[in-house]
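User: Fold this; tokens only.

Assistant: Input:
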Amino acid sequence: MSIFDLDEISVVGDSHIMLSATRNSALYSKIQKGLGQKYLVPFHGFRGKNVGGICTILRHILEPKRNLTSLEMIVAGTNSDCRDKRWESDEVIRSNLRDALENIAKEYPSCFILLNTPPPIQNDREYKKFTENGQEMKKIWREQKRIAEIASVIREFKGLNVGICDLYKALSEKKGNWHTDGIHLSIEAEEIWASLAIEELEANGIRE
């Protein structure tokens, strides 16, 4: 049997997914080991994309038609918090996710979708900005509070054929060094992430 005849679990997201695939991280290896014998599990990671960007890319990933069992959509949302053109309001995030879920349900009505809440960042992130007279100012670049709000929006979509891997809650409630650079996750954090994702998939009948 060709690998393209296998059922597929497609993992789509921002740089959290890109780094997982390129460095063969805990998240990548654990999901591949846990589900890769039975399913084709491609990782699609795109640096710097917000929720809207991932949802746009998603439309192209879903073509051509394939044996899609579960689409684990890693909408980390971290870049939706950036104070630049990538910033998205709650309603824009809701609209993008709603459209994406409706499109998936239309094309793949039996597909289970696993949404992931964004991981917490280590601290609020600042950057320096200079006024016209050369005075230095500090501006918030990413904010913990906003990441928590984005996580709450994503949780709203839990329902029929849509599960939630609540990474934000899991890491916020545990003490540990969860980051390599204040934003991207450590090996220990990715171990927790992988276990949460596999647990949610298996609870919905997707297992080895």
